[in-house]
Design a protein that fits this description.
Helix 3 crosses helix 7 and helix 8 packs across helix 9. The chain contains ten helices and 14 strands. Strand 12 and strand 13 form a beta hairpin. The chain has two domains: about 40 residues, no CATH class; about 220 residues, no CATH class.
């Protein structure tokens, strides 16, 4: 049975063996008579709740992303055209936990017809087979007795503890693929090795820990890094949207324009994006 009483100095309440009281500083605290419990303040309680929310965010995202190895992706876009990189970006959303096998939503292995369907290439079979042949000849996609899998050197699904990994959220990628051209997705793919860990900035040194030393890409530098013209950067980036959100933000400081990735599409950290990053991508296209 629950009991309740008030102390004579500070207000106390007692429920099932646990005391709650207000100390001399006006701080509400919780205690218990057993040595197995400890006194915690409201601030500590709120911090614990916040950590639980962050953990909930992480758990909610873990089931919906694939991982890309930033250090090896240059091998892919050195072998594929920009549009073919876009096909691979979409197809890697279907890798399984079991060795990277490409599977349908019902977990059955994808056939070439299944792949053509999700890539929207059913009427462009020559484009599809050019892509598949290039992937197989360069070891990006592997085939064994009619079962296809993506080389985990580049993309995989599952746990990792590598700082050189960028997470791609599959539901978002699928929607982006439906809304923009494959070449646009391919251009995004070529940018993945340059996502900064803390800020989601596109930069020349994505593993730099000191924010004052980040070498942000300008339009010209980003074009050079991705192998396209500066004009293509200007034309394509404003059109890259999904669900009414921009995929890439253009940040102008003085007369310099810099770029950031939407963290709900690509992200490297396990924690929720900070408030500034969320606010930037809350801006909607007109």
């Amino acid at each position: 049975m629950k009991k309740e009483f008030k102390g004579r100095t500070n207000e106390h309440r007692y429920f099932d063996g646990v005391f709650s009281y207000v100390d001399e500083n006006g701080e509400k605290r919780i205690s218990a008579p057993s040595h197995t419990h400890r006194v915690v303040s409201n601030a500590q309680t709120e911090a614990f709740k916040a950590e639980q929310e962050r953990d909930k965010w992480r758990k909610g995202k873990q089931a919906s992303f694939t991982a890309a190895n930033m250090l090896n992706l240059h091998e892919v876009y050195g072998a594929l055209t920009t549009a073919q990189c876009g096909y691979l970006m979409r197809l890697q959303c279907n890798v399984s936990f079991d060795g990277g096998t490409l599977v349908n939503s019902d977990k059955t292995p994808m056939s070439t017809s299944d792949m053509m369907f999700v890539l929207q290439l059913a009427k462009k079979t020559s484009s599809f087979y050019d892509f598949l042949d290039a992937c197989i000849s360069h070891g990006i996609i592997e085939e064994n007795d009619g079962v296809y899998s993506v080389n985990p050197r580049y993309h995989f699904r599952g746990a990792f503890n590598d700082q050189y990994i960028v997470k791609t959220y599959t539901a978002k990628i699928k929607r982006v693929y439906r809304e923009v051209k494959a070449a646009d997705i391919g251009l995004i793919y070529r940018m993945l090795p340059f996502i900064h860990y803390e800020t989601n900035a596109l930069c020349a040194n994505p593993f730099e820990q000191n924010p004052s030393l980040i070498r942000w890409f300008t339009r010209k530098a980003l074009a050079e890094a991705t192998g396209v013209s500066p004009g293509e950067i200007s034309r394509r980036i404003p059109k890259m949207t999904f669900d009414g959100e921009y995929v890439i933000a253009q940040v102008t400081v003085g007369n310099r324009r810099m770029y950031m990735f939407n963290p709900w599409v690509f992200y490297r950290k396990n924690s929720e994006p900070d408030a500034t990053l969320q606010a930037v991508f809350n801006v909607k296209p007109k």
